[in-house]
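tool=predict chain=A
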Amino acid sequence: MKSILLSLLVFGAMACQNTSATVSSEKSKEKSAKPINTNAVAYFASGCFWCVEAIFESVQGVGEVESGYAGGTEKNPTYELVSSGQTRHAEAVKVYYDSTLVSYSTLLKVFFGSHDPTTLNQQGPDRGQQYRSVIFYQNDKEKQQADAYISTLLNEKIFGRITTEVVPFEKFYVAEEYHQNYEHLNPNQGYIRAVSVPRLNAFKAKYPELLK
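tool=predict ok
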């Protein structure tokens, strides 16, 4: 069983890094056609954005999530370039949310509760700086909340160490259309079945009170 699971995970990692999948024009429009009734945005990176997008979209008060790239210097990066490690960009998400329904501190709870912040440049089977853990703060209040949350996690020994970067937000580049809503549109894809769905289900089981 271990060898079978390992094969699935290795295949999944390769799929996430090298996929050339495309979606029909009808499906690709499904996400962009959804109304965004929100008043705030937040930016995070915590591994493959297919997984992270699906997790945040399951949270009450979150209206939409976009997959993209942030944290590097390359302008208009492509998936292939980011995956090659030639940029400092991380696979990231832009979370559109209603601050009257869900707070930024709750989004931090979702962030730290849905990935392993102790692994440097790695999340599950995915390795490389593009999979690092990052909070992109937009103002002093967000930075203070992020720093305080990390201090609490360390002081309460929830984690022995935290590698998450807390850096100022600069620019978010929306990823190619076929990456958007990927987990929802491709439930039978190998990586989705082996990695993304179990990660989403683990989050749902841990925080049922935060779900839509």
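Residues 1-34 have pLDDT under 50 and may be disordered. Helices lie at 2-18, 25-32, 49-57, 79-83, 104-113, 140-155, 182-185, 190-206.
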